[in-house]
Amino acid sequence: MVFNPNFSDSNAQQTAVNPLLKYLQHQPPEVLARVAKSVSPEIKEIISHNVQGLVGGLPSDNFNVQITTDRDNLAGLLASAMMTGYFLRQMELRMQLEENLASTRSISE
């Protein structure tokens, strides 16, 4: 899934006061696609569980699950998932850095 930077074109006031949204809207689609593809399977799994927890976790094979919401709440859900993804990616990079530093220390000892 790639972020659609034009999802709120109808709300120009929101765009004017949201610098992140403004920044995203000025990114080429190739950049957004590359960032979306760089997410690890572990992060995708965590975000999936997080979103399922937010909207309800009934299994669709046993229930006829249908979710209805308005544009603002859906935008909030998208923003939450995006921020969770950015946070998790940074934590993943931090974990890799700590692992690399730990292995470097053991080599020098």
List the helices and strands and how they pair.
Blueprint: H1 12-17, H2 19-25, H3 29-37, H4 41-55, H5 71-108
Helix pairs in contact: 4-5
Notes on the protein architecture:
This protein has 109 residues and is mainly alpha-helical. It has a domain at 39-108. It has 5 helices and no strands. It has helices spanning 12-17, 19-25, 29-37, 41-55, 71-108. It is flat and about 60 Å long.
Please give a quick description of this structure.
This protein is 69% helix and 0% strand. The protein is mostly helical and 109 residues long.
Given as residue ranges, the uncertain stretches (5+ residues, pLDDT < 50) are none
Q: In whole angstroms, how far apart are the ends?
A: 45 Å
Secondary structure tally: strands: 0
SSE order: HHHHH
Q: How would you describe the shape?
A: flat
Q: What structural class should be given to the helix and strand makeup? A: mainly alpha
**What is the helix tally?**
5
Indicate the proportion of strand residues.
under 5%
Major β-sheet annotation: none
Integer average pLDDT:
77
Task: Please bin the fraction of helical residues.
Answer: 55-70%
Q: Descriptors for this entry?
A:
single chain, 109 residues, mainly alpha, flat
